[in-house]
# Entry
Amino acid sequence: MQLYDRDAIERAVGLDGEALAAVEAGFAALGRGEAVQPPILSMAIEEANGEVDVKTAHIRGAERFAIKVSPGFFDNPRLGLPSLNGLMMVFSARTGRVEAVLFDEGYLTLVRTLLGRAIAARHLAREDSRRVTVLGAGEQAERQVEALRLVRDIRALDVWARRREAAEAYAARMRARGLDVRIHDSVHEACARADIIVTATPSREPILFARDLPEGVHVTAMGSDSPEKRELDASVLSRADAFVVDTRTQSEINGELKAFAGGEVPFKVHELGRVIAEGQRLRLSPATITVCDLTGTGVQDTAIADFALSRLAPL
# Structure
């Protein structure tokens, strides 16, 4: 068994085309019914504004599978600590023996989450998308544009965050990377010219409404990943011409579909893996509005862990 720390993992794995292809292949396997993915094990630690999730999946035919333990403690930035932490344990899919422990401190979760958004944009956003709006200014926002640039020629960034000082610090860092960045005092203003909107907050109530959506926009929401979180008002889902999730079951429990809990969902729900595997074209015109709700899947974790280990210790 090998133990790898975050520094070694960061040197081996970044936001690049090969990593994106590995995660996309995981989604496609899920869409073809070639993955075994149990429900998420989740535990809240309310007194510390924290949670711990355990996710896993096996892609049939793969040499390895991973089990991820992922704590998220959302007051940590006030303590000078990152919100995310954790590790991934990688097992042989033939013998069940532990091959490696990837003590990534949440880095691989960050990478596969960013790549998941890029994959959603590749299949759902307009090909001429140039302007992205990011709602939130935390760790996820920092490298969001870098990931999106793998699939779209992003040139301009609009940002909104609950704390103005956080938005200003984020904007300064992104301007240093050559982007045209504007800070906005309201979500509506931030989204007015967007080609792509990304929500990346721990909000417990909706921050984005149908009235905020410009024609032809693509929205990827990923902050709602537990029962008490919400980022999208139900009007956003109903307004979408195509609504996509990573898995419907997870979205109904942890994601944005819980807005319709106890009632019938009044629109068709697509799963991203099937969109990829079947080559579905959901954007029928430049005016089409697409929305994707990503709650984070075990198949993404197994895919990125296997990819990381292939670079750290090739078979």
Q: What stands out?
A: The longest strand covers residues 50-59. Residues 79 and 145 are 26 Å apart (CA to CA). The chain is about 30% helix and 25% strand.
